[in-house]
Amino acid sequence: MKPCAYWLDANVFIQARNGPYSFTLVPPFWVFLSEQLEQGTIRCPKIVYDEIISGNDDLAAWFKPRREKGLCYHPNETVQQCFGTIADHVATKFKPHQACEFLIGADGWLIAHAMNGDGIVVTQESDRSHKSKIKIPTICKVFGVQYMNTYQMLAALGAKLG
Asked: Are residues 65 and 34 in contact, defined by beta-carbon separation less than 8 angstroms?
């Protein structure tokens, strides 16, 4: 069964732009993402949009005209309830400073949007690095939310970049 949407973390865009899929080296990557936005396959919560456009760089310039295409989803009531469930878990299972850092960022909202349906979180985070920080995969596992990295998403969507 195809998921409702792939919910992309800011690090997917930032690492792609700064690394293997820069705008000048691999333009087909960005064309592919634009096509997926048009189809409603990939999405971002508003908080990710806000984070990216605050950079005021080429990535922000790419994001801004695609705001209404899926890069700026506002949380509905169900997403807010999902976030509340995530927040309760994080607040009771982790140290206060870890919970605070996690909850002020986009990570919890990203997971909450995916929980609200059959979405998949796409992130470059690994639950094996930076043990002092709460990682997206760790929380996804707790709530049974699927997650994958950029390369897995590209394969799942049949991207042809060459």
From this structure: no
CATH of 6-156, one of 3.30.70.940, 3.40.50.1010, 2.60.40.10, 3.10.450.50: 3.40.50.1010
Neighbouring residues of 143: CB distance < 8 A, sequence distance ≥ 6? 85, 86, 89, 111, 115
Tokens of 57: 């760089």
What are the C-alpha distances in Å from 117 to residues 2, 35, 134?
Answer: 12, 22, 23
Q: What is the rounded distance in angstroms from the CA atom of residue 51 to the CA atom of residue 76?
A: 20
Q: Which two tokens stand for residue 99?
A: 């919970």
Is this structure's pTM higher than 0.90? yes
- DSSP-H helix ranges across 64-149: 77-93, 96-104, 107-115, 136-143
Whether residue 38 contacts residue 69, with contact meaning beta carbons closer than 8 Å, is answered with yes
- pLDDT one-digit tens code per residue, 25-70: 999 999 999 999 999 999 999 999 999 999 989 999 999 999 999 9
